[in-house]
Structures are given as C-alpha cells and as structure tokens.
Amino acid sequence: MSQMNSLTTLIKRLEAATSRLEDMVPSMAEDSNVPNGTTPNQHQATILNDDHARVASPSAHQPNESLPQAVQDFDEMINNVVKTYVNVSEEVGGLVAEQSAAVLRAFAAERKFLIITCKSKRPEIQSTVYMEILKDLQSMMGAVNDIREANRGKSQFVHLTTVSEGIAVLGWITIDPKPVDYVTEMLSSSQYYGNQIIKNNKEKDRKQVEWVNAFYNIFKSLGSYVQQHYPKGVTWNPKGMEPQKALQEVQSEQPASKSPATSSIAAPPPPPPPPPPLPTFDDPPQSAPNGVSKSGSDMGAVFSAISRGSSVTSHLKKVDPTEMTHKNPSLRSNNAVPSGPVRTASQTSTSSSRGKSPLPDKKPKPQNMRTKKPPKKELESNKWLIENYDHHQGMLEIEAQISHSILVSKCTKTAIRVVGKANAISLDNCTGVSLVIDSLVSSVEVIKSPKFEMQVLGSLPTLLLDQVDGAQIYLAKESLGIEIFTSKCTGVNLNVPGATEDDDYTERAVPEQIKSIIRSGTVVSEIVEHAG
C-alpha cells in the first residue's frame, strides 16, 4: 500500500515537472535571441520597436502582389534611400529634421500619384481632375520650401536651401519625353548649396557631409528608377477607370493602407500661401549668390520703370572713390576690397580665379506644377499688358492709340482684337492665340508661340517670328510690302489677297530649308524649293 502511495506521488511530481518545462520553452526560445549585454526586458522593447517599423513599412512584409511593380520599386526606394536621409536628418536635428519630414510626405504624395496612373486613363493636362490629382504633391513640395522661407538667416539656412532647391525633382512626372535629364538638372541645382556644406565641414563635422551625400543619393536612386520604369515619361492605363473615380478610390484606401512614409508622421501642414505680388523696381527682389535675381522678371514692371525715366536709378547706392579698383590699384593686388553691400568687378573676377563654380541655371518649374495667376489686362502708362488668359470666351478688345505698345504673354487659345493704329505688338510664350489688327506703325514680334494666327486689315511694315511652330498670316492689300523675318520656324503660311475683292486668298508657304554651298571661298545660301 505504501508503494502505491509512493508511485502516485511520483507520477504527480512528474506531471508537475512536465508542465513547468512546457511553460519554460517559449521563454527560453525568446531569450535565446537576446544579444550579449542586453537584458530580456530591453530585448523585448527592441522587438516591439521592430514590429512597429514593420507595420510602417510595407516592404518589410512580403511584396504586395496587388501593387504594380513600379509602385513596389518606388516603395523600396522610399524605405531605403529616402528613409536613410530622414534618419540622418534627425541626427542633425533642428530645422533639418523638420524639413526632412516634409520631404517624406512629398514622396508619399508622389506615390499616390503613381498608383492613380496605374489605375486610370490619362486625363486632359489642363483639366480640373488632373490638377486635383497633383494637388497633394504641390502642397507638400510647397511645404518644404515654406520651411526655408520662414527661416532665413538661421544657422541651417544653407541646409534648408539645398533641399528646397532639390525638391522640385518630384516634378519629373510632368516632364516628357526624357524625365531622367530633368532629375540630373535638379541635382545640379541642389549641389551648388550642398557642396558648400561639404567644403565647410569636411574636416570639422563628418555628420554634415554624410547628410549631404544621403540627400544626393535620393537623386541617383530616383534617376535609376525613372530610367527603368518611365524612360519616356509617366504612362497611364489606357484600359483603366476614369481619373476622378481612380482618385476617389485611392483616397478612400489611404487610411487603410498607408504609404511607407507616413504611418508615423503627423498630418501634413496647410497648403502654401498664394503667390507673392509681382516685383517692382522700388522693392528689388532678393538675389541668388551669383547676383542674379531669382524671382521671375515681369515685363510690365520693366515697361513701368522705363516710363519713369531717370528716377529708375534714384535708389541705387553710389560707390565711394576709395572702393573703386581702377582708382586704387592696390585693391587689385592684395584683394583688400572693403566689405560692403556693393559687389565690385574685382571681387567677381577674384571669385572666378579661385575656381568657384557659377550658380547653375535653375530649371524652371514644370508648367503643370505652377500656381496659376489670374488673367490681367491693364494699360500702364503707354503699355498694354495682357497676361494669363486661358481659353477665354469671346474676344478681348483693345482701343489702341499710335503711342501704345502691346505685350501679350502666357495666354492660351485666346482671341485678341486691336482697334485703331498702335505702335508695336509683342507675343511671348503663348499658344493658340489669334490676333486681329487694323494697322501698326512698327512691327509684330512673335516668340515661342505655336499655333499662331493673325489677320491684318490695314498696313503692317514688319513681322518677326522666332521659334514659331505653325502660323497662319492673312494680309491685306495695304500690307503686301511687308518684311518678314523668321528664325527656327516651321509651318508658316502667308495668305495673300487676290487681285479683286471677289478673289480668294492665295496661300504661300514661307521657306524652311536653306542650302549652303561654298563658292570661291565664300558661303552662299539658297532656298531649297520642293516641287511636285
């Protein structure tokens, strides 16, 4: 009996030991992966952080088969080079870290745009839905630049400028047909400021150099991505849904499947403020490091300033004779030009001799990414300014006088009627503009304005066409003695009236092809006539 009790007790003890061992197995499995020098509690916190990172980054999971390969590769780029830049920015700290978060949101907005292109048919470039698709990206890019503008004079201003100059690279989606060239040009714009940081910190702070190179890597990775997936520009899905529906679908999916950049980032800032007023000569715009104004020039301000005469230069500072290098040769020999707001010719030449590279030409922002300005029709002094009219209904009419000059710029598919005899007319960067004039004293000049049409009811002495692709010119009998100058033009046709009022116009093509040969050591150029 005592043996039975002992056996029963032994069995119970074995069962208890087995249960205890089973409880210890999961804990031992977790502790087996604890790094040396790390407590289990610390390791558990690391596991939780890693889990959070995996939730925030889709690429940490298995590839999402529902996403196109182009979007998956874009996610991979964000999770690698862009996240590396953000991490280094957080180590640098301050405004640099704040701006990097805005850059991350801008990449997330471009990711949404790429998803829409995979789902949708191509919308009209000037349509409302296309601008709505670009709205988030424009807002995020503007937020990056706003951080720079709000912190002028701060110690990290050059860092902020490096990024704000480069963030325009996200506009490659509107470039056709070789967006990879645009990416390269944007890198050059950013390098002007980034290389200054590298030069000043190469021997002092390696973290600053690491930050600049991390930002440069974004351009290199993006260039490879664009060349692989969109070598000739962004493609859309010809069999896809309507653009508006695709936009709504992607917006509704955003909360459920966040992009790899935004799962742990606060809501985006409000959209940027409206564009600043046009510059005037009374308040000179800020200048780039090479002395060239960075704000876009406005011909209206130029004409207005010219009209004021000698008062244009009233605000300029006179250079003291002691600062003039041609009167003080010693200043040229020892470079001891006194410091001051005036940059002399000697300083410019000295800067060039030291090997500093000039400021690269800044690539203009793609037309689709620009904020539209309101249309303008004003008479300033004796200058008519007509700007930013787009698909205007009806005809714009101007009552001109013989002293009036007319400037038409950045107008699209707009008809303009000039009543009376004006002095001169200039068209610049317009598309599909129709012009009807009575008579002119001087000339009509057309620059970079394709699909141009003009009808002359009276006399016109001169017509100048530069980089015009497609033009129809209807002349009156009074203007048959017109002189026409063309440069880099194609498809220009003159419609000449017949002998009587009942005769139709006769169309004559302006020659495009010139043949040049050498005769007796002299270059002789002849028009190539096409017969047949």
What does this protein structure show overall?
The protein has 532 residues and is α/β, with parallel strands linked by helices. It has helices spanning 2-31, 40-56, 69-92, 95-119, 128-149, 157-166, 179-201, 206-229, 243-253, 299-307, 329-334, 345-353; strands spanning 376-380, 383-387, 395-399, 405-409, 415-422, 424-428, 434-440, 443-447, 452-456, 462-466, 469-474, 483-487, 490-496, 506-509, 514-519, 522-527. A 7-stranded mixed β-sheet has the order 1-2-4-6-8-10-12, covered by helices on one side. A 7-stranded mixed β-sheet has the order 3-5-7-9-11-13-14, with no helix packed on it. It has a two-stranded antiparallel ribbon with strand order 15-16. Strand 1 (376-380) and strand 2 form a beta hairpin. Helix 4 packs across helix 9.
Strand content: 15-25%
Provide the spatial order of strands within the biggest beta sheet: 1-2-4-6-8-10-12
Number of strands: 16
Rounded mean pLDDT is: 77
* Low-confidence region ranges: 25-35, 37-63, 261-268, 281-285, 287-297, 339-354
Q: Report, as a whole number of angstroms, the end-to-end distance.
A: 127 Å
The secondary-structure class comes to alpha/beta
Helices and strands, in N-to-C order? HHHHHHHHHHHHEEEEEEEEEEEEEEEE
- Molecular shape: extended
